[in-house]
Specification:
single chain, alpha/beta, D-Maltodextrin-Binding Protein, domain 2, six-stranded mixed β-sheet, 12% strand, disordered N terminus
Amino acid sequence: MALSQRHRLLAPLALVGAATLILAGCAESSPGGGGSTDGKGATVKIAGGITGTEADALNKTFDQFTKDTGIKVVYTGDKAFEGNIVTKVQGGSAPDIAIVPQPGLLKSLIETGEVKKGTDTVSSNVDKYWGKDWKTYGSDGGDFYAAPMLGNVKGYVWYQPAKFKEWGVEVPKTWDELLTLTKTIQEKSGQAPWCAGFASDAASGWPGTDWIEDMVLRTAGPDVYDKWVAGDVKFTDPQIKTAFDETGKILLDPKYVNAGFGDVKSINSTAFGDVAAKVADGSCALTHQASFLSANFLTVKTKSGETPKIAPDGDVYAFLLPGMKEGEQMVEGAGEFVTRFSDDEATKKVVEYMSTPEFADARVKLGGVISANRGADPSLASSEFLTDAMKVLQDKNTVMRFDASDLMPATVGSGSFWKGMVSWIDGTPTDKVLEAIQAGYQN
């Protein structure tokens, strides 16, 4: 799925030397530019879907950059960004820079002919600091356009360490062990172990797509996942049905869901972020959600009335959804891409800066986010959990794939796939659901 609110992670570091500063650059210049030929005195305007405190942190990330370059950067967040940006660009109202949360949306913007190709410096930085897949997601037709900004690890299972100790259970190392753990918790507690929420207004259903994407990656492998994303493997393929069947062993079993909320069908009426409170207060033993759920825990309380501590020995923590075999580290991720519409020097410097470890460190240090930039320092992350998540993204041995629904055509990824997950939870047979999702390619 592809809601910008689901994608976040990064932190601050002092900028290093004038040469590094030349790399800086992620602020939109006012129409017509302004300032000197080296960008000093210019204002670069950035647009995106990041709002609230995260938008404040993003603006603050450029403070040192502005002091060192004289280029002012102004980021403005818009909750309707994803639905409006293509129209604005086509109408001649493009920002200097846009932070785009979906490769599919990036492709649509590139097709307008208004997106500028990545500079040599940005291209070099992406080659040096990110995996090859990240550069592919920021490219189209063999040309490179956009560097990644922040990252987001999906597929975590959140739990209470103290409860695991009480029940005498351990973090599972395989999918079968997770199913055994689920059964054990149900028997020991007499309650459903899992909670889930698919409600997200017009985007309801996306948390279910994350489940399926995780399972396709684990049961069928990355090659099949890539073919599925490309449309070469259909939703009606037995390999995709297997992922649904495995997921259904948890989400469709009334003994296993929906802890703290009701029955299986209550999953569709439960807001995706509300699961954090139930895990924190012990009503729910397990929930599947991305690394960004760590931010939701900051707004809820434990039974003792305290903000939960996120740590291996704390109130809540998380482990990656295990693979079919022990030792497999396959993760689904997401992130934003920095897209340039202006050709002036100030804007180039901003996008170049945003592709550096210094930018990543600066944003990560401000809290709540991580980066896949391999030159960034994971110890700067605002919690032990985010440090661990960032190390997973940076690990060259991690098999990482971008959120499949974000890569599929919108009629499927944010259309029939989302709707299909809601229908599936409501009781529609799997085969009919898969046919309906596949039909999205015809629209």
